[in-house]
UniProtKB/TrEMBL annotation, chains A, B:
Pfam families xrefs: CbiC (PF02570)
Entry-linked Gene3D superfamilies: Cobalamin biosynthesis CobH/CbiC, precorrin-8X methylmutase
Name of the gene encoding the protein in the UniProt record: cbiC
Protein name, per record: Precorrin-8X methylmutase
Known pathway: Cofactor biosynthesis; adenosylcobalamin biosynthesis
Domain Cobalamin biosynthesis precorrin-8X methylmutase CobH/CbiC: 12-205
Length: 210, 210
């Protein structure tokens, strides 16, 4: 009835999971730095579509690794993304991790302007000089970040843009692709907070390697 | 470039998303109380597999609704699940929401016993009298809960058991099915923290209805 079998060590479980994913995916088009990110997304979701839909701009991994090593400030669009980031890992880089969507003054400003809290929270993160943007939920956060970049108000080191959903999510990711900003994203409707967090966690592992 | 179109109101976005999901899923085998839960999972993941793999024990919705209305204590296996639960909604029911996996004394006990922190955190939640269990990540948490139920140490009002992954996750959900405990779950490897949270959020909406 315990049913957990002989394997209990989390490192062993992860290694075994990665073996299964490698074997089931087979040949793929990702390079040796991209694949650990894609594999970790599949590990988080058990969804093999990500071996097909995950996208990297040229040099995105290197851009993310460099930003982590510089200790850049990170903005999350939801507290679920923030909760999913490995805090112990992040402390080693000295990066601050913020999410403003639940701040009372953000809610007040959103009501006053008749816009989403996600838009106001994005503006706040930009004003505070964040370099890495993790967007796992809100297309409006990603659209606002792209607007601010286009007007020259921000030049993100990396955009992890994986909003999920049926209205605006796919479109926001196509706009990210067209923007030319350094990004890790995915095509279509899928995405989510856990995926945004897991991409940063994968980048931290790469940044700790030589 | 803003690209968000005419729709910006979150309620309108949700209603439109639900329309799209209803249309694309078509006929399904869920009843009128189960479908809002399944639909919300698809809304959270954009993964239509959940229209096929989501499972409810008989009376699971009613059990969850009753437990919420009684203000029962809720245990989450990860802080991502906790972050994803609608706190404003929960406050209306007077339910306390706990997650012990990051507690320092849980880590110490896990090291001392050579077991996972998830097992120790589950024991702590049971000892504190939790009635609803949200397990989105750790198969060992679900196996431990089933073991404690089998030995008569706990009689959960509802188990939301949707651990994700390649080692133990599917097996833990089959064991949940076999246990006879009131549960909402899904078949196979898929699942995750966002799904566990969204199931509780859907139950809260049902519990507020007549």
């Amino acid at each position: 009835m315990t049913g957990t079998g002989a394997i209990l060590n989390p490192q062993e479980i992860e290694a075994k999971s990665f073996e299964i994913i490698d074997a089931e995916v087979g040949p793929h088009g990702y390079d040796r730095r991209q694949w650990p990110v894609v594999r970790r997304i599949i590990h988080t979701t058990a969804d093999f579509d990500f071996a097909r839909i995950t996208r990297f701009s040229a040099g995105a991994i290197e851009a993310g690794v460099a930003a982590l090593r510089r200790g850049e400030k990170i903005l999350c669009d939801t507290n679920m993304v923030k909760a999913g980031v490995n805090k112990t890992g992040l402390a080693g880089f000295g990066c601050q991790l913020d999410c403003h969507v639940a701040d009372p003054e953000v809610a007040r400003a959103a009501r006053a302007e008749g816009i989403t809290r996600s838009i106001v929270a994005t503006r706040k993160g930009v004003a505070e000089g964040c370099g890495i943007y993790l967007i796992g939920n809100a297309p409006t956060a990603l659209f606002e970040l792209l607007r601010l970049a286009e007007e020259g108000s921000v030049s993100p080191s990396l955009v992890v843009g994986v909003p999920v959903g049926f209205v605006g999510a796919a479109e926001s990711k196509e706009a990210l692709l067209a923007s030319g900003l350094p990004h890790i994203s995915c095509q279509g409707r899928k995405g989510g907070s856990a995926i945004a967090a897991t991409i940063l966690n994968a980048l931290m592992i790469l940044a700790r390697e030589a």
